[in-house]
Amino acid sequence: GDSVTQMEGPVTLSEEAFLTINCTYTATGYPSLFWYVQYPGEGLQLLLKATKADDKGSNKGFEATYRKETTSFHLEKGSVQVSDSAVYFCALTYSSASKIIFGSGTRLSIRP
Amino acid sequence: GAGVSQSPSNKVTEKGKDVELRCDPISGHTALYWYRQSLGQGLEFLIYFQGNSAPDKSGLPSDRFSAERTGGSVSTLTIQRTQQEDSAVYLCASSSTGNSNQPQHFGDGTRLSIL
After folding, report:
1. Could you give the CA distance from residue A47 to residue A38 in angstroms, rounded to a whole number?
2. Strand, helix or coil for residue B4
3. Mean per-residue pLDDT, B83-104
4. Phi and psi (nearest 5°) for A22?
5. Res B101: pLDDT
6. How far is B17 from chain A (nearest CA, A)?
7. Which of residues 46-85 of B touch A (CB under 8 A)?
8. B62-90: per-residue pLDDT in tens?
9. Which letter, b or e, does each residue of B11-49 get, where b requires 16 or more Cβ atoms within 10 Å of its Cβ?
């Protein structure tokens, strides 16, 4: 079946460090890929998405590129801030039924 | 309101009781989803409604769980004879269509605690 595997956390970085959170997927077709973020005390919200191979999603300085050849969608940011502290979920939707299949989440903490 | 609204925000109940969780989707959104986020677990799909089609119930963990969506808008998730393992945050999401390219907008969730 379809699944998403992401880097286990927690991840702790200093402010202005480079961030990578790895995500790989297994799918029988051509899913859309997403990163969702859950800030402390808030609901889940979409961070960025890519709908086909080689697409790059970007938002708030974060980027992720849909790599079909490696079945990956790694999240990157060049210089993290304390306000980026949150739980990040990699996810895919596949087929018109569109339930989201989520990874287990990665907790990110940024030290000032 | 502008976003997906869920109520109650917190619910504490005794084992064996029934609970009802409510979701008001974004106005005009035809697709509605329920997910569960358990401590130490990822987000788990429960059920999906799209328009007047039969719901996709493939994620419901047992027959104690059911959901309905009245008038194509508000949805209620019901858990009967609650067990401690039902303790989790229950999230509702809606999207403008069931197309996978349309993002799902999430509510803040209902935190359910079973004593």
Report:
1. 9
2. coil
3. 85
4. -80, 145
5. 65
6. 27
7. 48, 50, 56, 58-59
8. 999 999 998 879 999 999 999 999 999 99
9. bebeeeeebebebbbbeebbbbbbbbbeeeebbbbbbbb
